Amino acid sequence: MNLQNSNIMKTISKSLKIGTSIGLFFTCFTQPIIAADIFVCGDGEVTLGYAPTSEYNLQVGDEVMWQEWDVVNGVNIGAPQVLTYDGTPASVNLTLQGPNLDDGSHNYIVFVLSTGDECTGDNSDPVEIFKLPELSILLGTPSFAQYCEDGSGPDGQTSSEIVATTTPGIALPSEVLLVYTWTADGITDVSSIGSSTPNSTTVTELTNTFTLTTNTVGVYTFNTSVAYAAAAADGTIIKGGGCLTTSTNSQTVEVTAKPGKPVITVG
């Protein structure tokens, strides 16, 4: 359907008002989820569907017009994507794929051009899809590159800290949660040699610290990974599997042995 059609232009330009509902359908659910916001990263995808609770029941041949919408200025962005109803709900679902979305906020509305008389229906309320950016993570220099196993060094140190810093491609909404996972070469469970900052369940945390506290002599090489949590702090789903990324600048701390008690020889 040509966007220049006067009926469509009239519908696109008018103020948003409550009308047809938009349903968000996910591959792991069979029922629509109505939501104001949804996050997607990487190869994740979101499917927008015409909700069965809408005021108007679709008729075969109706054209469902999906439109990206500028909620600030109240205008359309580009031309609508037109899907014709064939009697099955899936025929008018719009699938948005992460790789095809720019980072940041995208709002979509839907309206119907009825078959036959071509009446233009009301706009739905907008639904926001936020495309999350790729993440990068770097490890800082250890607070102590070495410490003695029993703290007998000149500074009495018995631990060392490494700070991981995450840099997103754009600013993240504060409710988006990050999950950090630390690893050390040759260590099955890093909690046996130290501890990391607990992952936040309330706000975005762009740093995370691992504190090595073991007194077992050896050289410990660390890396960490960061990913988006499965849901934001407010429960909003994050699609795309977390988009895991791992540090490429590993850091090393050495726990050195305390010299044993010497024996004096007399000659």
What is the fold's blueprint, element by element?
Elements: H1 6-13, E1 22-25, E2 37-40, E3 45-50, E4 63-70, E5 75-84, E6 94-97, E7 104-113, E8 127-131, E9 135-139, E10 146-148, E11 160-168, E12 178-184, E13 194-196, E14 207-212, E15 218-228, E16 238-239, E17 245-246, E18 251-256
Parallel strand pairs: 2-8, 2-16, 10-18
Antiparallel strand pairs: 1-3, 3-6, 4-5, 4-7, 7-8, 9-11, 11-14, 12-15, 13-14, 15-17, 15-18
Summary tags:
267 residues; single chain; Immunoglobulin-like; mainly beta; disordered N terminus; 18 strands; six-stranded mixed sheet; rod-shaped; 1 helix; 2 domains; five-stranded mixed sheet
| SSE ordering | HEEEEEEEEEEEEEEEEEE
Number of helices: 1
CATH class category label of the largest domain: Mainly Beta
- Report mean pLDDT, rounded to a whole number: 86
> Rg, please?
28 Å
Give the beta-strand count.
Answer: 18
CATH superfamily of the largest domain: Immunoglobulins
Overall CATH architecture of the largest domain: Sandwich
Summarize the biggest pleated sheet. Answer: 6 strands, mixed
Protein structure class: mainly beta
**Terminal residue distance:** 105 Å
Work out the count of structural domains.
Answer: 2
Indicate the percent of residues in helices: under 10%
Task: Quote the beta fraction.
Answer: 35-45%
- Classify the fold: give the CATH topology of the largest domain: Immunoglobulin-like
Question: What does this protein look like?
Answer:
With 267 residues, the chain is mainly β. The chain folds into two domains: 6-131, Immunoglobulins (Immunoglobulin-like, Sandwich); 135-256, Immunoglobulin-like (Sandwich), CATH 2.60.40. Helices cover 3% and strands 39% of the residues. The chain has one helix and 18 strands. The chain has one helix spanning 6-13, and strands spanning 22-25, 37-40, 45-50, 63-70, 75-84, 94-97, 104-113, 127-131, 135-139, 146-148, 160-168, 178-184, 194-196, 207-212, 218-228, 238-239, 245-246, 251-256. The strands form four sheets. It has a six-stranded mixed beta sheet with strand order 5-4-7-8-2-16, covered by helices on one side. Strands 10, 12, 15, 17 and 18 form a five-stranded mixed beta sheet that branches. A hairpin with a 4-residue loop joins strand 4 (63-70) and strand 5. The longest helix has 8 residues, at 6-13. The chain starts with 5 loop residues before the first helix and ends in an 11-residue tail after the last strand. Residues 1-36 have low confidence and may be disordered.
